[in-house]
């Protein structure tokens, strides 16, 4: 009898403890603030944007209280349209698009508040293997480039001119192929050279479809190539959310800096299900080595000057836009104090 009472008492105590813990858990979950939803539109899905995917995969945004809803809008014009029509809160796209919008006398300009990539992300891929490449080998060739007015194409023209090549006279320049179809066009026989992002460039090289001979990112130097931007009205009313967003990205950058490429590749693999981990790792390391991932997330005055020089060189801008009108560095500086 005594033993039965002892067992019953033990079970009762266990039940009370379990109930108490459950109740405490319910209180904690009620007290915990719900995550703030932030809609992000990325211009394309690219290994070039690895810090963003790391921050998502490792839960850094959630740690800051943010629920990031990411969608790919496939193109600078579509991304900007999505942002301007309130289909997204933040856009990840080339900083030149904010200048195009400003030039159209926008009443609510789009502001660059954090820089993700600090170089061009494309590579020059040759159809034939070239042991000793020099830029003058492009003269007389057919070059499958990117969309006119887009940053990849403007940077490529800037680099070609830097090496004494007139892209509109010294070679046959093809610019009428959609971004998503450029790789397919090259494998189908169009062009002697093509401008490609990773991991496509590495995949082509591994499969013998092409050979990487140069990096436009290395040749062009520091450029605020891809930035996070939002309408001025959004940043005014959601400044704290923007700062939290930046802190998560910065944490991802720090992790990338001290982590081996294979581990990084495995972390972002869910965002590139059709790409082998080994290819992802080599692509990430290629970008990391050439300094493509912006370490401090700040779009510098020099970078802003360079991008406008590139735009003017390409005939897409006739007058510079003041740095302070379209760039906000306070958000990054406050977030990283």
TrEMBL record:
Keywords: Signal. Coiled coil: none annotated. SUPFAM superfamilies: Periplasmic binding protein-like II (SSF53850). Residues 50-256 form the SsuA/THI5-like domain. It comes from the Bacteria. InterPro entries: SsuA/THI5. Its main location: periplasm. It is found in: Periplasm. Residues 1-25 form the signal peptide. One of its GO terms (cellular component) is periplasmic space. Belongs to the bacterial solute-binding protein SsuA/TauA family. This is ABC transporter substrate-binding protein.
């Amino acid at each position: 009898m005594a033993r039965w009472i002892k067992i019953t008492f033990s079970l009762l105590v266990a039940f009370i403890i379990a109930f108490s813990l459950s109740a405490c858990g319910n209180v904690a979950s009620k007290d915990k603030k719900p995550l703030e939803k932030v809609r992000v539109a990325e211009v394309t899905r690219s290994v070039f944007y690895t810090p963003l995917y790391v921050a998502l995969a490792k839960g850094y945004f959630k740690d800051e209280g943010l629920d990031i809803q990411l969608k790919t809008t496939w193109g600078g014009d579509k991304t900007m349209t999505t942002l301007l029509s309130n289909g997204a809160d933040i856009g990840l796209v080339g900083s030149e698009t904010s200048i195009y919008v400003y030039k159209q006398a926008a009443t609510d300009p789009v502001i660059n508040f954090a820089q993700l990539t600090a170089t061009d992300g494309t590579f020059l891929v040759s159809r034939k293997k070239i042991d000793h490449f020099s830029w003058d080998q492009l003269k007389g060739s057919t070059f499958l480039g990117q969309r006119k007015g887009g940053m990849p194409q403007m940077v490529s023209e800037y680099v070609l001119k830097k090496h004494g090549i007139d892209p509109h006279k010294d070679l046959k320049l093809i610019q009428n192929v959609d971004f998503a179809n450029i790789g397919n066009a090259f494998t189908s026989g169009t062009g002697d050279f093509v401008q490609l992002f990773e991991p496509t460039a590495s995949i082509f090289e591994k499969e013998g479809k092409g050979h990487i001979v140069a990096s436009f990112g290395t040749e062009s130097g520091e450029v605020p190539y891809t930035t996070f931007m939002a309408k001025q009205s959004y940043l005014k009313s959601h400044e704290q959310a923007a700062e939290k967003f930046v802190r998560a990205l910065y944490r991802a950058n720090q992790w990338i800096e001290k982590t081996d490429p294979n581990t990084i590749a495995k972390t972002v693999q869910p965002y590139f299900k059709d790409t082998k981990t080994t290819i992802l790792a080599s692509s990430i390391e290629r970008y990391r080595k050439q300094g493509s991932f912006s370490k401090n997330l700040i779009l510098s005055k020099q970078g802003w000057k360079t991008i406008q020089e590139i735009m003017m060189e390409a005939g897409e801008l006739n007058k510079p836009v003041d740095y302070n009108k379209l760039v906000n560095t306070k958000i990054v500086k406050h977030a990283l104090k």
